[in-house]
Fold:
Amino acid sequence: MVLEFEKPIADLEHKIQEMIQLAKGKNIDLSADIQSLEEKLQVLKKETFYNLTRWQRVQLSRHGDRPYALDYIYEMTNDFIELFGDRTVKDDKAMIGGLGDINGRTVMFIGQQKGRNTKQRQERNFGMANPEGYRKALRLMKLAEKFNKPIITLIDTPGAFPGIEAEERGQGEAIAKNLREMFKLKVPVICIIIGEGASGGALGIAIGDKVYMLENTWYSVISPESCSSILWRSWDYKEQAAEALKLTGPDMQENGLIDAIIEEPLGGAHRNMQDMAVRIKNQIIAALSELDKMKPEKRIEKRIDKFCAMGIVNE
Structure:
């Protein structure tokens, strides 16, 4: 999958590969030309990815090759044990969770999971959880609290599922209850936006002591397309909507809504998933080291103060 703004890079990469194959096939020395093109490629990548628009970052967050929650979890831990069900309705496959080991310490992972192909996307409901998904997440959070295990949430959703059946089963109530209960959790809670962070669907598992965003992700009350359709009655203005929403990591950090941005490999997380997983893991370890020094009561107090301070404007 190649995005529109990535095409010049893809064309140059293809040309380099052609020259490498030609050199091998004809047994001629083209190393100088190949090196020159590789240098040009590196410059082009930097010029492109260091100057992305907000809409281009939204596109990267949805890249078809981008790692999902389970990709990171399996890369960061060798003994992940997935847990299922909300003990009320069913198991929601759009919301995953379970216990895993990070640096010799057991943690509870919770996250939204998308699919790679049509069948998987349908099974995972495109990463849009139903009420039972949020109730499963809360059940696992309470389980982690019971056994004094830190909680790591990986957020990647276009929003909670908006279907009638979800509303009938209490979608709003399930998310609201998660918000209330997450404020009171006695264990460290670290939230990381790894892709899309849309509306209450994201916020339902995003109340934490530390909130991080990967470099090419977004976090907002509404997607650019939906914002465009409301304001302009058309999706054609999604780029303008993305600029107006200010939904990227630097915007969120400037407004005090997140704690830090985790830098991605040049070109996006999908270019080097293993490297990205190491960066996330290191951030988790560093955050846990800091949070472990606080008493549970102090963590809860700071967590509440953190979110209560959001949205306050001083003139």
In short: The chain has 14 helices and eight strands. The longest strand covers residues 189-198. The two ends are 46 Å apart (CA to CA). The CA atoms of residues 105 and 270 lie 27 Å apart.
